[in-house]
Fold this sequence. Notes:
Largest sheet: 6 strands, parallel
Enzyme class: hydrolase
Order of helices and strands: EHEEEEHEHEHEH
Number of helices: 5
Strand order of the largest sheet: 5-2-1-6-7-8
Bound molecules: pyrazine-2-carboxylic acid, zinc ion
EC number: 3.5.1.19
Organism: Nannocystis radixulma
Structural class: alpha/beta
Keywords: Hydrolase, Metal-binding, Pyridine nucleotide biosynthesis
Protein name: nicotinamidase
Number of strands: 8
Amino acid sequence: MRALILVDIQNDFLPGGALAVPEGDRVIAVANALMPRFPLVVATQDWHPPDHGSFADNHPGRAPGEVITLAGLQQVLWPTHCVQGTRGAEFAGALAREPVAQIFVKGVDPEVDSYSGFFDNGRRRSTGLGEYLQAHGVREAVVLGLATDYCVKFTALDALSLGLQTTLVEDGSRGVELQPGDVARALAEVRAAGGAVRRSADLLD
Ligand code: VGL
Ligand code: ZN
């Protein structure tokens, strides 16, 4: 069984959003085109409480992009984004919703961020995604969404660590690129861990 994992295709990561990913809106059409080809489609949703420790606003004197230690882990500070119940946290309006069988929220614990759709950054808690895929007999994961160099990368790496055959869809993902080259490095990391990086056209034929 093969599953498509849509990572954080939410308003705050689209152009004009609080943590806008350049060309983030371009992943929507790719996601919509791929969904009907998969027997199982799931989505992750960045879903932070207002007091989340990854928000620069919650650390007086700190600015987005700075790195702090949060609960013993290195943490990049971000603009306030994807706050639970806000429009920014909702899925992109143009994203097809009907094919999505299950949604997994992440980043709920104020003390630890969660880039991967499977586990928090300390790997202390599961979101339930891994157990869900296992229960549905999934052996192969195809991952796309936002952002390539954060949540898409870590979701793909965790899928690999759980023994899933994993493909990252390059044109179905866009990156933040805090440092130039971050997207290319993310793709290289996924390949080095045993994952494939492919274009959506190759998955459609
Ligand atoms: C993400 C930074 C903070 C992502 C989420 O979805 O890639 N990046 N929260
Ligand atoms: Zn976040």
